[in-house]
Design goal:
mainly alpha; two-stranded parallel sheet; 61% helix; 8% strand; globular
Length: 49
């Protein structure tokens, strides 16, 4: 189950809906901007493959 901290919820909500849903389906825990950036980098890597 995914979790997005209130500290970064605003930034998360600015992402496109499709991207938010994809991230949430991964079951990640996002406590900081660093966590969000890491997940976004992973998504980019997945799409490059």
């Amino acid at each position: 189950m995914s979790y997005v901290s209130e500290k970064i919820r605003f930034q998360f909500e600015t992402l496109p809906p499709e991207l938010k849903n994809y991230i949430l389906e991964k079951g990640v825990v996002l406590n900081s901007m660093e966590d969000l950036m890491k997940v976004l980098e992973e998504v980019i890597q997945e799409n490059d493959e």
